Amino acid sequence: MTTTIPGPDGRPRCRWCAAAPEFFAYHDTEWGFPVDDDHRLFEKLCLEGFQSGLSWRTILAKRENFRAAFEGFAFERIAGFTAADVDRLLKNDGIVRHRGKIEAVINNARRALELVETEGSLAAHVWRFEPSSAELGPPQSASTSPASVALSKDLKKRGWSFVGPTTVFAFMQAMGLINDHAEGCVVRDAVDRARAAFVRPGNAGA
Fold this sequence. Notes:
The chain has 206 residues and is mainly alpha-helical. Helix content is 51%, strand content 3%. The protein has a single domain, classed as Orthogonal Bundle (Endonuclease III, domain 1). The chain has helices at 23-29, 38-51, 56-61, 63-69, 75-78, 83-90, 99-119, 122-127, 146-157, 165-174, 188-197, and strands spanning 4-6, 12-14. A hairpin with a 5-residue loop joins strand 1 and strand 2.
């Protein structure tokens, strides 16, 4: 089976884009490009948790609703959510109404605040788990990795929930901690360039 398909412009893209037409824009402009913004990183961890048992297409279609419901994933604000907010969110049909996942976002927001207090930023901590190229297999050949297992264990130890190794691996793929674009994908080289130019958070003054 080939690992790429032609995109709207005829150039090759990762095969998973074929699942939905809206995947092309996400694939071309977001997936795999390195991110150091704490709120975007927190958002992705939360959305990957919501995706558990569902499709990414479902979550992507509701992403703006999630952003509105969860204050733009500003964990500083979500940490103050109460039981009344959980009840409110359970009535919001624009998101995935799953009590455990909603409560996990609130819990993880509080844990994120603690992590920022001790580690400086969520970004600085997450990027410490960036794997070396020697650790990586062929693109899109795995659903977990030693690095995703390590970060998952670290977050769970800190009290985070819905952050299993598969969820964390998908997060790492999307947030650019690895370049998992298929060989031959037109975006792979662009991600390589972006990662080469990217200043890893926490390096300054280290």
